[in-house]
From TrEMBL:
It comes from Gossypium hirsutum (Upland cotton). Signal peptide: none annotated. The gene is LOC107912100. Belongs to the glycosyltransferase GT106 family. This is O-fucosyltransferase family protein. The lineage of its organism: Eukaryota, Viridiplantae, Streptophyta, Embryophyta, Tracheophyta. It is a single-pass type II membrane protein.
Amino acid sequence: MCSVEGIGKKGGMRIGVIKGGGGGASGGERVEKWKKSSRMKVWIIRATTSVLLWTCIVQLTTLGETWGPRVLKGCPSCFSHQDSSVSAIEDKVPSVPARVIPPKRVYKNNGYLMVSCNGGLNQMRAAICDMVTIARYLNVTLIVPELDKTSFWADPSEFQDIFDVNHFITSLRDEVRILKELPPRLKRRVEMGFVYSMPPISWSDISYYHNQILPLIQKYKVIHLNRTDARLANNGQSLDVQKLRCRVNFNALRFTPQIEELGKRVIKLLRQNGPFIVLHLRYEMDMLAFSGCMQGCNNDEVEELTRMRYAYPWWKEKIINSDLKRKDGLCPLTPEETALILRALDIDKNYQIYIAAGEIYGGDKRMASLAAAYPKLVRKETLLGPSDLGFFQNHSSQMAALDYLVSLESDIFIPTYDGNMAKVVQGHRRYLGFKQTILLDRRLLVDLIDQYNNGSLSWIQFSDAVKETHERRRGQPSKRLVIPDRPKEEDYFYANPEECFQQPDGQLSST
């Protein structure tokens, strides 16, 4: 039995010690049961409290996403320097419902894919779309792509400096897992140099990645693709593959809020003065040196451009006949030639012409004839102050992103050379409803220009010929040209992603 022995008094209360006796197990059991019951109650209270707190956090987050931006917009003095007139354009845009994050796609992860993009902004943009698609169909985890920092432009921008990285990751979570960096153990291995790196074969079918690349990923766990431009074929892919490429391009690759906001400001300033045309005048020093196109350049300029071409070992073509290349339509139009073409197309001289380009080689001297024909020439540098663009200086890809946004919204987009920006913007404008894009036939145009300049054609004959040539080159619905044996010569997928928009019957034509 249990006995209680008195060991003293305190305040009139007897203090004792419970001692276990020969058959007194029942008292111990009651104490033990009481302890277990107390612990259970504490656990239940903690669990219930955690659930309630988590529910409150989720509800507050949802309310914050829905109402937070509206509340902040109501305090312009705190968060915005815009005046009330800025909302005039934004008010016309229908309100966008709160974005719903898609559920995660559950799949067995076969490994990790690292990619290093090469080239300018739009070359890298297309490559990113391809690499996301490849990662999804290989069931691997994609690491946020590394951007080119060693090209001619030497832009130090990281992915998150140009694109909204969190939107990129979350908007694609139902297709592929994307991480900002490798897990720590694998990251250490890569930093020590233990990574399999290779350039994939250009214009490859998705089956190439299944048969050749996936086994390498499964073997090494991490693989690094170090050149990613034009690595997935334009044609012959399944509809799901093509649609995912478009989803990444048109929905997941959103520029940072800072770039988007500045783009809206430029568009607003242009819209205040009526319609505007974006002229992608590809007449920068690097373009001329790379292409070897010296039309209209003096001897000193020809020598300077030639030296530059030889200075870059990856510009493989060194000896170039500029005149022959021009006649083949492989040179960008000069500012003087461009002025003639715009006039021949009856572009109103009172239209604003926004120059989407870097610094024009030859400066104001080369732009004189174009400025005389179209006095409302503008650039981002003339529309915005130094303080607005200061952050973007020496970041060519971020400046190109600004031009990209303006190009999408223009009444007409006219590229003078079919480089990567011309192609990708053309395709994006098709996706937005076949917005007018005049695709210049340079091979025919230089012949017409030469005939006009030597007096073989009158102005009326010249103008009629230019207009007739471009009647069906304005971004209308058309079939993409397929050349199975010569993928470099066929139409680029991102210039005309026809699988990604609904076409009315009978609207597609061959061009």
